[in-house]
Amino acid sequence: xxxxxxxxxxxxxxxxxxxxxxxxxxxxxxxxxxxxxxxxxxxxxxxxxxxxxxxxxxxxxxxxxxxxxxxxxxxxxxxxxxxxxxxxxxxxxxxxxxxxxxxxxxxxxxxxxxxxxxxxxxxxxx
Length: 126
Prior knowledge:
Helix content: 55-70%
Shape: elongated
């Protein structure tokens, strides 16, 4: 099990360190339990998974609602690296589809390439 600093967590989540700290405090207020060593919070892989889930959910609901949801949800289903890797793969596929859009519209017309792009965008939003 890995231990993450707030700076490392912020870098992975593409957030400011102050935002990562605020999210941790918000999660704790919602009932999520973070481990502590010498009275300092230490972020584990499971905590990183919770923060990643919070980031995704906060795009669809308020931060408070997302914190409540994550605090109630079991976050030990997948290792954090697998979730981050899955998200990166989906993002890369979307970017590739977007890059090929102009050529695809020229050769295939505008309907099919736009449908594929829209489907990939929906996958990224979930």
